[in-house]
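Run: sequence + flavin-adenine dinucleotide -> complex structure.
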Amino acid sequence: MDFELTPEQREIQALARELAAAEIEPHAAEWDRAHGFPRALLDRLAETGLLGICVPEEHGGAGADFVSYILALEELSRADAGVGVTVAVHTSACTLPLLAFGTAEQVDRFVPPLARGEQIGCFAITEPGAGSDAGALRTSAEPEDGGWRIRGAKQWITNAAFGGPLLLFARTDPGTRTARGVSAFVLEGSEVEITRTEEKLGLNSSVTNDIAVDTLVPGDRLLGELNHGFRIAMATLDGGRIGIAAQAVGIAQAAYDVARRYALERETFGHRIADYQAIQHKLADMSMEIDAARLLVLRAAWLKAEGRSHTEAGAKAKLFASEMARRQTAEAIQVLGGYGYTKEFPVERYYRDAKITEIYEGTSEIQRLVIARSILGRQELVATPS
Ligand SMILES: Cc1cc2nc3c(=O)[nH]c(=O)nc-3n(C[C@H](O)[C@H](O)[C@H](O)COP(=O)(O)OP(=O)(O)OC[C@H]3O[C@@H](n4cnc5c(N)ncnc54)[C@H](O)[C@@H]3O)c2cc1C
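>> structure
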């Protein structure tokens, strides 16, 4: 078994790390307070190819593998988790499913502008009454004039305010109330209305919007098979979760870096706090758990890059990495003491940013159900609330 990254993977990791250190990390606290980063950053990410890393060159991307993309996501999230999720949703939850499930016409129309970063993509499934139980969604799509009349409202849609294309899920079989009867559509940003910008605990540099839709789209906006949209949603989340796991590792790595540096400088009772076993044990646990999470993430990313089943591996990576990030960012605050609780150091922001990784793209409870279903091979596990 070879744990070495390929030269291309190392090159993309280094590119993302350098850009993040020079152009993102120095501004992250300010963007957290301002609830947003400048549009110019997206142009920089675009010109460096970081918005189309694993999109084939013939479709406007850099043509690298999925592992390279995941390595870059960790680096961007280490500097600013909000920038990380902006790129993760754009790539994993919009561009890649379009590539995987789109017709040649849909791919030619929507993927190149996304891969070149001219547009920023969204994934819209969640509704006020349909989060973990996404199959209960109520947005409807009815046949009209050879196309589809789509009506409804979506909640907490990352990137919607950028006005780019959306992968949107709607019910095409009105006789159903479950995942069956749901279809996927590609909408232009101009076909939805932003109704709200969410105020959040953390991840403040990323934009999260509620949207309303009442639009008539042509028939060629249906993505994949009619009434089989939920398969597209689940396949998309299988890959998306690996990205969120990489985001969590990036946040935890940033917290560990600050805590380790602080422990080597801060003195109490005439000694560096790094000399105290209690602090050494905290740093040892942080370092170990970050390594363990990163290995789970890279294994899942490698399985996906190899075109192999990655549902269980992705769920394990997301579950472990997200819970680890919440635990270890709290420990980083503890190592910094009172300073950790202030905005003088970034660890409080890391703690606030880490929490969302246990919620979106499937909560930790749902990940445990996904893993249990996979290891026990029994579909009905999910249907028995306990
Ligand atoms: C900042 C942010 C960004 C987001 N971005 C997007 C986006 O871009 N696109 C999008 O579509 N959605 C997005 N979401 C929505 C996100 O994916 C959902 O919040 C998530 O799926 C959880 O759904 P919910 O919030 O409705 O919680 P609920 O489903 O109401 O769950 C509440 C609690 O019950 C638990 N629970 C639910 N069902 C079960 C069960 N069967 N067994 C055990 N426990 C259960 C959950 O784990 C959770 O702890 C975003 C949310 C946030 C906060």
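>> summary
The chain has three domains: 7-115, 122-226, 230-381. The pocket of flavin-adenine dinucleotide is lined by residues 89, 123-126, 131-133, 156-158, 200, 203, 208, 356, 359-361, 363, 365-366, 385 (CB under 6 Å).
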